[in-house]
Design brief:
Number of domains: 1
CATH class: Alpha Beta
Protein name: ABC transporter ATP-binding protein
Oligomer: single chain
Strand content: 25-35%
Bound molecules: adenosine-5'-triphosphate
Shape: globular
Membrane topology: Peripheral membrane protein
CATH architecture: 3-Layer(aba) Sandwich
Helix content: 25-40%
Order of helices and strands: HEEEHEEHEHHHEHEHEEHEE
CATH topology: Rossmann fold
Structural class: alpha/beta
GO molecular function: ATP binding; ATP hydrolysis activity
Organism: Dokdonia sinensis
Number of strands: 12
CATH superfamily: P-loop containing nucleotide triphosphate hydrolases
Largest sheet: 6 strands, mixed
Keywords: ATP-binding, Cell membrane, Ion transport, Iron, Iron transport, Membrane, Nucleotide-binding, Transport
Length: 264
């Protein structure tokens, strides 16, 4: 195995994602080949319906690929048991079914499930990771509240805390900034960045905050017209990929300032 490959946290080869219909498959995107390494913050962008959630769900093992392969830490995802996969990747999805009757602390503690014994006994190490996850997401102050008592934005941060508590090399998040105000959006982005750059994790998150993704991410996956482009933000901008994201009659992109504006 080459040295290069050893550092690959997520590797997809000619991956095709979509849905199996009764008569034929519905291909949402195909030929997706990406390689994410340790310490990378990677944004996943594209217009509504371009396949961001479908790709994340497929990488997470929640739906089957139509074709192609997915490797996590150099091993095919098909060779992972659910327990070992849960120690390797954590997922924060939109509309995730959770028991809102749990307290925040109880929900975040569930992140430790892949590591605890069958009684779910938490060790001191588990407890300190949970405390860190609550502090990092600024959710410690409402740890004893029931999840149904939280605003959408607070709940979003709690779900990120649970993923952090799971302490996996790869963290997948589907639109983690939805429902957040500007302050919390910025703090979540800074948090994701520090998780990647300071803790050495690999973070892949989908977002409609394209400007932030281009400014902050090490790499970006652009889903467009059934294909995926994967490169540095700079290269994608230079190649005109970002200019072509939206119909030019509605939204304009300025390469210098990395800003979109609405065509008046
Ligand atoms: N369960 C499903 N069965 C069949 N098709 C689906 C299913 N879920 C999504 N799709 C279709 O797959 C395509 C991609 O959807 P997906 O939710 O992955 O896009 P997205 O990029 O995440 O969109 P958004 O930005 O609106 O969240 C869409 O055409 C959608 O209608």
């Amino acid at each position: 195995m080459s040295n290069e490959k050893q550092h690959s946290v997520l590797f997809t080869n000619r991956l095709s994602v979509g849905y199996s219909g009764s008569s034929s498959d519905v291909v949402v995107a195909s030929d997706i080949s990406i390689e994410l390494k340790k310490s990378q913050l990677v944004g996943l962008i594209g217009i509504n319906g371009s396949g961001k959630s479908t790709l994340l769900r497929t990488i997470a093992g929640l739906q089957e690929p139509l074709s192609g392969t997915i490797e996590i830490a150099g091993k095919s995802i098909t060779n992972y048991t659910p327990d070992i996969l849960a120690q390797s990747l954590s997922v924060v999805l939109t509309g995730q079914a959770i028991s809102k009757n749990l307290t925040v602390l109880e929900l975040v503690a569930l992140g430790r499930q892949p590591y605890t014994n069958w009684l779910g006994t938490l060790t001191d190490n588990d407890k300190s990771i949970i405390k860190y996850a609550l502090e990092a997401t600024e959710t410690l102050e409402f740890k004893d509240r029931k999840c149904y008592e939280l605003s959408d934005g607070q709940l979003q941060r709690v779900l990120i805390a649970r993923a952090l508590a799971q302490d996996t090399q790869l963290i997948l998040l589907d639109e983690p900034m939805t429902h957040l105000d500007l302050h919390h959006k910025a703090s979540i982005l800074q948090l994701l960045k520090s998780i990647a750059h300071e803790q050495g994790k690999t973070v892949l998150f989908s977002t409609h905050d394209i400007e932030y993704a281009l400014q902050l991410c090490d790499k970006v996956v652009v889903m467009q017209e059934g294909l995926a482009r994967f490169d540095t933000p700079q290269q994608l901008i230079e190649d005109g990929v970002i200019d072509g994201l939206f119909p030019s009659k509605t939204v304009l992109f300025d390469r210098e300032s990395i800003r979109f504006s609405i065509d008046k």
